[in-house]
Q: What sequence folds into this?
């Protein structure tokens, strides 16, 4: 394949370059071995990076699947251009966790319990809390292991069973668009305006490890946000910088943000 020169690397942040190299390896292997490569679960930013690199190779096709059409985390299958999309290629399983108390499970508790089994985050797809407990998309080879070893999430005792993708209980977040002005595109400034918090509170949340940008923890309040970046604050929700509209006469930046609850 074409080497990843500085022109390509310039499209990505410094901290993303190890993942770019990993994508390059997947593409190289799919081209030289003439067989499909199945990635772990990728977040939307990682999917974008991989798709950007694949589109440079006319001999490679790709498909992605996270278990349902609006899934956030997906596995990607890439391979030679004669490859056809088949559901079996993605090797997905779907688990329903139900609490003995009948209470809903919280996303952080479910994720923490799964990671506590020694699983890597990339083995776990979307986590979907609902009134009956929670549904989880996972890599197929771990389904039996999880069902055998996971008996408690937080303080709740749970039972697990495998379900089909048609049975997933999916609730879409509510999005609100609004325009705000900020002094800069620092992450603390956008969090302050986006969640209507003081700058001091925003800084404290970031430094305590509760802030993620594009699904990666950011602990520097001065971190610069770009158009399309997704910011999440544990316990508050998410916001995305949609567009940078213009600079006001006072030098402030007018931006459009989307809030998700």
A:
């Amino acid at each position: 394949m074409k080497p990843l020169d500085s022109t390509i690397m310039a499209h990505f942040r410094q901290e993303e370059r190890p993942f770019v190299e990993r994508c390059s390896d997947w593409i190289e292997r799919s081209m030289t071995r003439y067989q499909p490569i199945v990635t772990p679960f990728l977040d939307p930013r990682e999917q974008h990076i991989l798709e950007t690199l694949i589109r440079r190779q006319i001999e490679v096709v790709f498909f992605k699947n996270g278990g349902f059409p609006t899934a956030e985390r997906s596995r990607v299958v890439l391979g030679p251009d004669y490859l056809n999309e088949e559901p079996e290629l993605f090797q997905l399983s779907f688990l329903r966790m139900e609490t003995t108390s009948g209470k809903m499970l919280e996303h952080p508790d479910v994720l923490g319990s799964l990671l506590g089994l020694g699983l890597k985050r990339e083995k776990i797809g979307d986590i979907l809390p609902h009134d009956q407990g929670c549904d989880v998309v996972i890599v197929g080879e771990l389904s039996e292991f999880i069902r055998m070893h996971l008996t408690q999430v937080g303080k709740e005792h749970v039972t697990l069973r495998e379900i089909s993708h048609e049975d997933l209980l999916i609730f879409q977040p509510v999005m609100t668009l609004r325009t705000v002005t900020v002094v800069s595109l620092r992450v603390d400034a956008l969090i302050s305006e986006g969640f209507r918090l003081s700058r001091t509170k925003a800084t404290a949340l970031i430094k305590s490890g509760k802030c993620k940008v594009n699904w990666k923890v950011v602990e520097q309040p001065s971190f610069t946000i770009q158009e399309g970046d997704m910011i999440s604050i544990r316990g508050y929700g998410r916001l995305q910088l949609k567009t940078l509209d213009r600079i006001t006469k006072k030098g402030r930046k007018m931006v459009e943000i989307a809030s998700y609850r």
Notes: The helical segments are 6-9, 17-33, 44-54, 107-115, 143-149, 187-194, 199-207.
